[in-house]
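re the bet — no i am not wrong, look at it urself. input seq straight from the record:
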Amino acid sequence: DDAIAAYEAMRAQSLEDGVLYYNLGNAYFKAGKIGLAVLNYERALALMPSDEETRTNLTFANELIADDVASAPLPLVIRWLVQLYQRVRPDTLARVLSFSFMLAGALLTIVLYDAWPSWRSAATSVLVLGGLTALLSGVTLATKLNQAANRVEAIVLTENAYVRSGPGEGSPRLAEVHEGLKVRVIGEREDWFQVTLANGLAGWIRRSELEKI
């Protein structure tokens, strides 16, 4: 496919661009390559976490995956908080954190030095709110940065793959998974990745059957 070849040529030049990955995902989806479509949509979302078109296309592609290994459903409020966490960008959190600190510093001056007595009560209330906002945004930012540095996920690219109890063809099969499924990589050994699925199942899959996001 000409579109795929063109986008892959751009990617080969080490061009990290969310729109490029989005377009590459669309091209692979049209070609019927669900695994590569999901892989590139995930890469696009990593760079553009608030992009609704990419998220919608990824959701649609995921619905075509043959596996049903979803984790236990979360309560509505928790689900909403998780979605909010996924959409907010680290640079946005950094700006909120910086603004909250500056606001808290200004308000602390008012409270401690009684600069404007008539504002003291309101300043104290806003100071508490600003402090809580700074704490929340700081913790969220640290969590996101730690996750980006340490959490490794991969997509199954072959039509099917077996999760085995150990890193070898002779190890018993624990489950069969299919193209497009996302797994978390928790270890590596030669030609194998140690992975966990969304439902908590852990095992080993051949390295050649996966590609890291």
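see?? The CA atoms of residues 7 and 69 lie 31 Å apart. told u. also The first strand starts at residue 152 and ends at 156. so pay up
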